[in-house]
Amino acid sequence: MRVLVCGGAGYIGSNMTAMLRAEGHESVVFDNLSKGHKSAIGDTEFVKGDLSDSQLLIETLEKYNIDAVMHFAAFIEVGESVQAPLKYYRNNLSCTENLLSAMETAGVKKFVFSSTAAVYGVPENVPITEDSPTAPINPYGQTKLDVEKMCHYQNRAGKLAFASLRYFNTCGAGKNATLGEDHQPESHLIPLTIQAAMGKHNDIKIYGTDYDTPDGTCIRDYIHIDDLCRAHLLALNKLQAKKELICNLGNGKGYSVREVIETVRKVTGKKFKIVETERRPGDSPILTADPTKAKSELGWKIEKPDLEEMVSTAWQWHSNHPDGYPD
Q1: What is the pTM assigned to this prediction?
Q2: Are residues 53 and 7 in the same domain?
Q3: Count of CB atoms within 10 A of residue 39's CB?
Q4: Domain check: are 82 and 205 in the same one?
Q5: Which residues are the active-site residues?
Q6: Which of 13, 34, 153, 272 is the most buried if burial means most Cβ atoms within 10 Å?
């Protein structure tokens, strides 16, 4: 297929673009480069543009005869979404409505959407299934859920076939550790801890050590970027037969904050300062996925479930790119 990858120069988008090409699909990256890195996509066909530009979207979809769209162009910082909710509604919701409208105009019906476990808010039970109540507690999660609803109604109107994939914690570096995580600012635990190991930060903080977990720190579900992208390929192929699909993407098991930090220490061989501080508001003790549906409906198999391998690929990328991507 010819796939338009929106946000394709970002962390997940660039890995997805590489995997699409490796599997014989033609990909076109559409990105405004506000968060992404053009050097991460090599010689892939590239259109610099914003999802607010309806005309450019329609022209791009028609010019490249696009068969399907994958959307990774959301803002993702939970804390920022609380401080600047309209920024998130504008980019994550309004711009996605613009993209779906352009797709409708151009006659493109297949859509794979990068969603999030944040749609569940603070869950009553773990592991989390797709039938768990959706109750976002921040604008980031709410905008993702609102896009899912929008897609659902477009689907009911016969204008869209879509897959919404709800991520837990994506990590590691893909394409043989050549495509890594380079966010500004960085807020994810594994790259932050690696940066502490590299001496880029004075310490790594643990927010709360008195949770009802084996070591007192929060437990989260981590998934390697290669496994995540493989699920997107399977979902894209599934849209030939299925018109609406919602799946959790996670390992199905969790690792504590302290386990992640100790794994980074082991992999890097570096010592760094750990600071234990107060809990953050809204942090749940345990958030893990039940990935049964993705496995049964997509035929998805998790190939890299081990935390040490996830950290090792991330460390390899950061070691080779100490200052991130050159652009």
Answers
A1: 0.96
A2: yes
A3: 14
A4: no
A5: 140
A6: 13
